[in-house]
C-alpha cells in the first residue's frame, strides 16, 4: 500500500500522521487490527490512519486493506460535510470477503475523528484579537484571522495549530472566502472597516453568529446605517454588540484579556458540540466477540 510522503526520505508513519491531523483538527480514521486468526498479513496491534485523500502506514496490503480504507472513508462521508465521531468493528474473512489466499480472519476497529467542530473568523489583529486567538487555541475550532494591515500578525501565530492568518487589504473581499456557518467576530482598528465588514457578513446571510466590538452608541450608529443600506430588523438582530455582554459582561474590566475572555465565554454555548448518544464506544456484544470469539 502506498502511503503519503511527507517531503522527506520516508513516508509519514501512522503515529506521526495521527498527531499532526489531531493537532490540525482535520477529519481522519484510525484503523487498528484488534484480532486475527489463521494466516494474516499482519498481527493484532497493526495500525493505519486514513483521510478522505490519503493513507498512512499499512495493515498488510491487498484487497482486505482496500476494503478497510473504503469502510473508513464511508464513515467520514456518512454525514455530509462533517463526519461523526465514533467506533465501529469490521470483520474480514481473507478467503471469503477479501478474496485473499491467506485464508485467515481479521477484525479491525475503526475510530472516527471528525476534526474541528467549528470555524471562528476573527477580523482584526489588535490587542483584543490577539487575546482571542490565544484563548481559543485549546478549543477544537479552526481559526481564520484577518487583518487589512501588512505585518500585523505576531510571530507566535505561525506555531499555533488550526490557525490561518490572512492579510486582507480588501477586508470585505475576504468575507466571500469564509466557509458557510462560520462564527465571526469583527474588531478591527477602524470603525469604517468594521461597518463594511458587518455589512458584507449580513449580506452573506449564512454566518452562525456575528459579534461586533464596541459600545452601544457605536452599534446604534451602525444599526441606522445598516438599516438604510437595506438590512431588515431580523438580520440586524443577528448582530451581538457589544460582544461579551451575554456572558455577563466584563464587570467593568475593559482590558483586552477581559474583553476576549467574555467574548469566548459568550461563543461557547453558540458553537455546536459533536452529538453523543446515550451509549458511546462499541456495543458490549461486539467487545465480547473480540475477546472470546477469536477462534473463528
From TrEMBL:
Q: Which residues form the XdhC Rossmann domain?
A: 120-267
Kindly give the PROSITE patterns that the UniProt entry links to this protein.
Answer: D_2_HYDROXYACID_DH_1
Q: Which Gene3D superfamilies match?
A: NAD(P)-binding Rossmann-like Domain
One Pfam family hit: XdhC_CoxI
- InterPro entries (alphabetical): D-isomer_DH_CS1 (IPR029752), MoCofactor_Util/Proc (IPR052698), Xanthine_DH_XdhC (IPR014308), XdhC_CoxI (IPR003777), XdhC_Rossmann_dom (IPR027051)
Which stretches make up the XdhC- CoxI domain? 22-82
Give this protein's Gene Ontology molecular function annotations: oxidoreductase activity, acting on the CH-OH group of donors, NAD or NADP as acceptor
Q: What is this protein called?
A: Xanthine dehydrogenase accessory factor
Q: Which organism is it from?
A: Halomonas daqiaonensis
Amino acid at each position: 500500500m502506498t502511503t503519503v510522503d511527507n517531503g522527506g526520505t520516508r513516508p509519514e508513519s501512522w503515529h506521526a500522521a495521527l498527531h499532526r491531523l489531531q493537532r490540525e483538527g482535520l477529519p481522519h480514521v484510525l484503523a487498528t487490527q484488534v484480532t486475527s486468526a489463521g494466516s494474516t498479513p499482519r498481527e493484532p496491534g497493526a495500525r493505519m490512519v486514513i483521510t478522505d485523500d490519503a493513507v498512512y502506514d499499512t495493515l498488510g496490503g491487498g484487497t482486505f486493506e482496500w476494503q478497510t480504507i473504503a469502510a473508513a472513508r464511508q464513515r467520514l462521508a456518512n454525514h455530509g460535510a462533517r463526519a461523526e465521531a465514533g467506533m465501529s468493528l469490521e470483520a474480514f474473512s481473507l478467503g471469503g470477503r477479501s478474496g485473499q489466499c491467506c485464508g485467515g480472519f481479521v477484525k479491525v476497529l475503526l475510530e472516527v475523528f471528525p476534526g474541528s467542530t467549528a470555524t471562528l473568523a476573527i477580523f482584526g489583529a489588535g490587542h483584543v484579537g490577539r487575546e482571542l486567538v490565544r484563548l481559543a487555541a485549546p478549543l477544537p475550532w479552526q481559526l481564520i484571522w484577518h487583518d487589512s494591515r501588512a505585518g500585523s500578525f505576531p510571530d507566535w501565530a505561525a506555531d499555533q495549530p488550526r490557525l490561518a492568518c490572512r492579510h486582507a487589504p480588501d477586508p470585505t473581499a475576504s468575507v466571500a472566502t469564509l466557509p458557510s456557518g462560520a462564527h465571526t467576530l469583527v474588531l478591527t482598528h477602524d470603525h469604517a472597516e468594521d461597518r463594511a465588514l458587518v455589512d458584507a457578513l449580513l449580506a452573506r446571510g449564512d454566518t452562525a453568529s456575528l459579534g461586533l466590538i464596541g459600545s452601544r452608541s457605536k452599534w446604534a450608529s451602525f444599526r441606522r446605517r445598516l438599516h438604510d443600506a437595506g438590512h431588515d430588523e431580523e438580520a440586524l438582530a443577528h448582530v451581538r454588540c457589544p460582544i461579551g455582554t451575554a456572558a455577563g459582561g466584563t464587570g467593568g474590566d475593559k482590558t483586552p484579556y477581559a474583553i476576549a475572555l467574555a467574548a469566548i465565554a459568550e461563543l461557547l454555548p453558540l458553537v455546536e458540540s459533536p452529538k453523543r448518544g446515550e451509549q458511546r464506544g462499541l456495543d458490549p456484544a461486539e467487545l465480547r466477540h473480540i475477546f472470546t470469539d477469536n477462534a473463528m
